[in-house]
Amino acid sequence: MQKTIKVDKQHVEKRIIDWKKRVSDLYSTIELWLTGSDYYIKRGSKLKMYEELMSEFNVRATNIETADIYKDNKIVLALKPKGLWMVGANGRIDLLSTKGNYMLVDFAEQFEPPYWKLFNGDKKNGVEFTKQSFFQLLNK
Amino acid sequence: MNIFDELGKIYNEIDNKYASIEVQARLRGHHKKEAEYSRKRQLNDQAYFLFMFTRFEGRVRDISDSLINSKVTNLVDWKINRAWDIINKQKSNDSLHFMNRVALLTPKGQFDHNLIKQYYDQRNNIGHGGSFTIAISIPTVVADMKRLNKDLKG
Questions:
Q1: Which of B3, B29, B86, B151 has a C-alpha 20 to 30 A away from that of A97?
Q2: A-chain residues within 8 Å CB-CB of B38?
Q3: Where do runs of H (alpha helix) occur along B28-97?
Q4: CA distance B46 to B34
């Protein structure tokens, strides 16, 4: 059964905090995965986050971290959070590289542990985002 | 290949082109250009979402029209027919709201109805030129539109 959630300013603020934590945790997980490899992750510039619900409930604009994956001191993959509020999902992060672009979408319910799926350049069938699927992407 | 897959394919071609420019700009530290192409990709997301949802709206219209026509033609009992007569009049003068058409095809308040309502609200936000960029996952849209297209019946 679907829960009825009261959307108010407090709820919107909680979701933003949760989103930032999920993004940050994702970067930390990737950092662990990359340990001992030829790659490393560096948190990059911040993107402005100001989505429609934030305006509707008078929540101020904020910033969210991007991150870049490096190899031989060159960026090989950029991770850019695209947005939190979306139909059928709980946030999207774009993964951009010179070899193609990908998308991470969180399909978990609100405030639940994330379930990230990785969509490749064709953006058709998503696969679970794991260390294996991530390295397959990196090593393409 | 169905229309949603076709539109998805064209969307991907454009998105991949823009993404390639966006990431090149990022690598070179050209942040203005990076932001410009990020914005182009967002607008592309919205445009293709609108394309797809418009197709879906057409399908809902067609199925609900057939359903209404069949009820009005085949029902004899006035007590049952009266509601369909009113719906038919709304259909004829084009005042039957899209979500009411949806409610004829899938139970109100349940998963599919709520999902369509969320997409409908998003389509209206974009269509009315809202100043916000709504994050869209086109793979999710394609999968949902294909499934709903198949599942909704009169």
A1: B3
A2: 80
A3: 31-74, 78-92
A4: 19
Cβ proximity of A114 and A132 under 8 Å: no
Q: What is the C-alpha to C-alpha distance for residues A104 and A118, in angstroms, rounded to an integer?
A: 5
Candidates A87, A107, A119: best to mutate against B (most CBs of B within 10 A) is A87
Residue B64 has pLDDT above 70, yes or no: yes
> pTM surpassing 0.90?
no
Domain around B99:
3-151
Helix/strand/coil for A106: strand
Count of the separate structural domains present in chain B? 1
B8, with CB counted inside 10 A (0-12, 13-18, 19+), is: buried
Predicted ipTM of the assembly: 0.87
Of A100 and A60, more confident: A60
Q: For the segment A112-126, what is each residue's pLDDT rounded down to a tens digit? A: 999 999 998 676 778
How many contacts, defined by CB atoms under 8 Å, are there between A and B?
A: 87
Q: What is the model's pLDDT at position B154?
A: 79
Confidence of residue A3 (pLDDT cuts 50, 70, 90): low
Whether A75 and B115 lie within 8 Å, measured CB to CB: no
Instruction: Characterise A123 by phi-psi region: left (phi > 0), alpha (psi -120 to 50), beta (else).
Output: left
Sign of CA dihedral A79, A84, A89, A90: positive
* Cα end-to-end distance, chain B, whole Å: 24
Average pLDDT over residues A73-89: 93
Residue A43 backbone dihedrals phi, psi, to 5 degrees: -70, 135
For chain B, what's the residue count?
154
Question: For chain A, what's the residue count?
Answer: 140
- Nearest CA-CA distance, residue B5 and chain A, Å: 9
For testing contact with chain B, the best of A1, A101, A118 (most B CBs within 10 A): A101
Name the minimum distance, in Å, from the CA of B98 to any CA of chain A: 18
